[in-house]
Task: structure prediction
Amino acid sequence: MKCSKTLSVEIASVGSYLPERVLSNDDLSEMVDTSDEWIYPRTGIRERRIAAPEQATSDLAAAAAEQALARAGLEPEGLDAILVATCTPDHQFPATACLVQAALGARNALACDLEAACSGFVYALTHAAAMLETGMADNILVIGAETLSRMTDYTDRRSCILFGDGAAAALLRRATDGGQVLYTELGADGSGGDLLIIPAGGTRSPASLETVKNRRHYMKIKGPEVFKIAVNKLLELLQRIPEETGVDLADIKMVIPHQSNARIINSMLKRAGMDLGKAYMNIDRVGNTSAASIPIALAEAVEQGKLQRGDLVLLMAFGGGLTWASALLRY
Ligand code: COA
Result:
């Protein structure tokens, strides 16, 4: 789905939360046969954050949400909707968004989760933008939150080096400050679903002693296959921006890509002829936090003053599903 209609919707504020505990590459090298020398050059990751045992995804999400609301000066009762993009919910149901709604006291907000793996935040933002543009809602909290460490197999060196925990929230409203959503593109190819998958725990393969014994409740990834598809698909999304919007890539102030692998991001930008410095990167400190990755980076870019009102920013994601998404915003 592509939408090149300009929407008068803007990000009023952002908030983020990273758990305190740091898991470094050196820590991982004591758990599996790996090393910083292998991990960093291949991924760009040096460390990632891990949630405390008593924290679940809704706790991280609520902390990020509180910050976004406080920065916008909006009371929780003023929210019309809470959308949580996550593939690591607290429970199968209720939705993590409902738990966040209760934690905030946002009693007037609808609340539901959206699962599009690493593309989830951009998917949710696009749905929220449509609801705001039609006048169905005035204030929507879009949250990306993950506790991937609970689904990570720390005996599998091919995957456990990649993932971390975290959350971030963006409060979206009908524009009052000149912000716009200029273009969004969302896509999927379910035939590649087995490339990134938690095989058991759902209706296809319910939890059993066997599934636990065989470690089938952890993420299984075919990393090299995903890598190749991700670079090509992200490049396609990037190259489509000028033809769909008339915006020259040189005029985009910042690209905020899903932080999957620094090599994927650099390869995409290089092949598009873009300055590598345009990409906001925090993968070295945060790792891959799936649906939380883009909003965490966005929140950091805003906090650091690297993104100002009026700047063009391009959000880009690729992940499990397979799914992909891009959104060109005037911040
Ligand atoms: N430490 C040391 N050696 C490792 C290792 C680790 N953590 N992980 C894999 N290796 C070894 C492999 O066993 C393999 O050895 P072999 O050739 O003797 O079999 C060798 O390193 C190369 O492995 P490969 O998987 O081909 O590495 P890669 O260069 O493709 O990098 C990823 C692996 C996972 C970093 C990379 O493919 C990637 O980032 N893919 C996308 C990740 C993804 O799916 N993210 C989620 C969706 S966004």
In short: The CA atoms of residues 95 and 228 lie 33 Å apart. The first strand starts at residue 2 and ends at 3. Residues 34, 38-39, 42-43, 118, 157-158, 161-162, 196, 221, 223-224, 226-227, 260-261, 288, 319 surround coenzyme A (CB under 6 Å). The chain has ten helices and 14 strands.
